[in-house]
Every structure is written in structure tokens, then in C-alpha cells.
Amino acid sequence: MLIRTLEKGEFSHIVINSAFRDHMLSSRERGFINRVYSGTLERLIFLDYVIDSFSSVKTRKMKPVIRNILRMSVYQLKFMDSVPEHSSIDEAVKLARKRGFSNLTGFVNAVLRKICTDSDSLDMPEYIKLSVPEWFFRMVREQYGERDSEIFFRKRFDISEETAVRFNLKKGSPEYTEGILKKEGCRVRRIPVPETAAYISGFGSLTELTAFKEGYIIVQDISSMMAVHKGTEGIQSPELIIDVCAAPGGKSLYAAEKFPEARVISRDITEVKTGLIRENIIRLGVKNVYPEVHDALEKDESLEGRCDIVIADLPCSGLGVTGRKPDILLRVKEKDCEDLAELQRNILSVVQSYLRPGGTLIYSTCTINRRENHDNAVWFTDKYDFDLVSEVQYLQGRDQSDGFYIARLKKHENG
């Protein structure tokens, strides 16, 4: 799994899902594998620093199998008290031999034993201790100040085992759906806002739950729900809503539930992404969402001035969901954030024209980088005839959700 992600570039959530789908594993085995895999990704910068401090060969020059055996072994040594040191070292040696590297078992053994005895005395920069890129550490401190950034970094690894879901009111009341989940052994923690949301835990495979298969629930983070909940407050009887970057369709489906008389156009750039929206539409039994393949950068003149609501959850760095997708910080570079901010401005410039006078634009991102959200909202209101009605920035650790930005912008009545 580590090789698939770190050497072949596959996304962590896809690797986990496919690995657990393809192998019959107990819940205990799943838990252990997920902990070692995700933990190694979360702590990779720290782990490589430690290994490089005690190895004559730097991690970047090692054989891929060997460096990943060392990484996950050091993770167990440093962060998993339940695994005895000698077991981690012995298993690493056995794995190296099993993978055809018998000539390197002595090297693996020696490096791990040095780390066991001497690594606690290592002196390292703060960003290495936190296992984040230096530019990201600097950005969070500059944008959020010492107090919030300290909370964020302290809580970064405290990832809840709960999964956020939204109840599908077309299938039954929240109480009825809660009963179905509890019959299957799930723990359910309801939250007051949005009232159809809950956290669930205690299940093996989410997709095997009756409540999921039969469309009683959809997986959606609370902050993503709040984009629709906050963004549409007070709006009465919209006729046409468009979600321009919609996959897998959570916001489109929530908007369709809130406004059952509205037509909701749900678009994304590829057939694969639109297929995910279509799957959720069918599973939930929603009739007023219409999936379409369309590039948000290409202006659709047929929609100009017609929409009551435009939902623009735009491509971003994803720096707000690193808790669930730890490989993001290993992929994203500082320059990427600037490029994505420009892409967002280009999309906003196109989709703002779809709104009728007085219409509402919901602009959201799953990042905590203000250059990709707040700064763009300010730029947008300076350039176009819109008012920034409200905005909120959720921060992992400080708030009970992913890091997420939501802005509600209203087009001038004479716009």
C-alpha cells in the first residue's frame, strides 16, 4: 500500500478502499493496517529525517521496498507502544528477506537498532517534529496566528474514527434511519445542525451497511453540508440551481432535498466523475438532480442570467482534509496553491454570469489556505457586482470538521 502511494502516486483513499475490498480481513486487521499505513504517511517527513540521521544510505537512494519497510517499522517503534520493539525489527528483517533482499537484512536490522537506542536525542526543527513541509508550517503560522496554529498542529493527528453522514429524508425520518444503523451495530451520534446529519462508527465496511446500500445515508463531511445549509438560508423557492464542480454530488443532492421543486444541474469535468454523481442519485432515489459532463471553465451561454443559486465548490489544494488524506501534504507544493487560486478566479469569472440579478453564489473550498479562499472572495467582489454576505473558515482541530471555507455572495439586483 505504501509503495502504491509513495512510489506510484496512487491516492491514499483509493489505495485503502481497494486493499480492504480485495482482501478478507477482520476488523482488528483492518484497524492495524490502516493505523500503520495512514500513520506512516502522516509522519513521513519526520520518519525520513530520523532514518536519514542513522543510515549511511539516504532514504531517497534506497530501494523502494527497503525504504518503505524502514518507514513503517520506525513508525511502529516511535508511535505504537502496543508493538514491542523487537517485534517491529524482526518483522522488518523478515519482510526484507521475503521480498528478495536477503543481502540487506543486516542493513535493515542495524539501522532500526540504532534508531531504537539513539533517536530520542535527535535535535530537529519544529516543522520536522510536526512532520509537515516547512512552507506549510510557515503558512499556517502566518495566516492563523500562534494560538490557532498551535491548536491545529497539536490536533492534526487526532483523527476521529467517526464518519459523517447525512440522512436521506426521501427514504425515511432521521429516527427511522438511526434505528436501521443501530440494528447493524453502528453507534450513532446526532448533531443539531444540520438536523439531518450524524456521526456513525462501530461498523466494518460502510458500503456493506443496509442503510448505505439502500440509500438511507450519504457520506458527507459536516463542513460540506454547511456550505448548502448556510449558503441557502432564507432563500425561498429557487427554480434553477447549478453545482459546477459537483462530484460525488453531496451538495447537489442536499440542495435537491432542501428545494424539491427546483431543478438541480450537477456537473463535473469527466464522465467518471459524473458517473459518481449518477450512482448517488440512483442510490438515494432523487428525481430533481440532472448530472452533466461539462468543464466549468467553458461558459454555457444557455444558462446566462437564469440561475437562482450557483454552487461553486472549486478545485483547491485540499489542505483542509489532510487528516483524512495524509498524502496531500506530500504532493502539494507552495506553487500549486498559487496556480489553484488562479484557476478558481478563472472559474468564478465564468460561472458568475449564470446568476440572475439577486441570485446567490456559494463559493467553497476544502483548504485552509486563505489565498485560495478569502483572498479570492475579496478579489471577486472588487471585480464583479456582488456583495460578500457571509463567510466562515473551519479549521481542523479548532472546529469539529475538516478545514473548509464557505462564502455566500449575492449578485446586485441591478447586476
What does the secondary structure layout of this molecule look like, with pairings?
Blueprint: H1 2-6, H2 12-22, H3 27-42, H4 44-54, H5 64-79, H6 85-98, H7 105-118, H8 126-129, H9 134-155, E1 163-167, H10 174-183, E2 187-190, E3 197-201, H11 210-213, E4 217-219, H12 222-231, E5 240-243, H13 250-258, E6 263-268, H14 271-284, E7 289-293, E8 307-313, H15 328-331, H16 334-351, E9 355-365, H17 374-383, E10 386-394, E11 404-411
Parallel strand pairs: 5-6, 5-8, 6-7, 8-9
Antiparallel strand pairs: 1-3, 1-4, 2-3, 9-11, 10-11
Helix pairs in contact: 3-5, 4-5, 5-6, 5-7, 6-7, 12-13
Structural commentary:
The protein is an alpha/beta fold. 46% of the residues lie in helices and 16% in strands. It has helices spanning 2-6, 12-22, 27-42, 44-54, 64-79, 85-98, 105-118, 126-129, 134-155, 174-183, 210-213, 222-231, 250-258, 271-284, 328-331, 334-351, 374-383; strands at residues 163-167, 187-190, 197-201, 217-219, 240-243, 263-268, 289-293, 307-313, 355-365, 386-394, 404-411. The strands form two sheets. The chain has a seven-stranded mixed β-sheet, sandwiched between helices. Strand 6 (263-268), helix 14 (271-284) and strand 7 form a beta-alpha-beta unit. 41% of the residues are buried.
Shape: globular
Query: Which structural class matches the secondary elements?
Result: alpha/beta
In angstroms, what is the radius of gyration? 23 Å
Number of beta strands: 11
* Averaged pLDDT: 95
| Order of the strands making up the biggest sheet | 7-6-5-8-9-11-10
Poorly predicted ranges: none
Strand percent estimate = 15-25%
State the distance separating the first and last CA atoms: 52 Å
Share of helical residues: 40-55%
Secondary-structure element string: HHHHHHHHHEHEEHEHEHEHEEHHEHEE
Query: What is the makeup of the main sheet?
Result: 7 strands, mixed
Summed up, the helix count is: 17
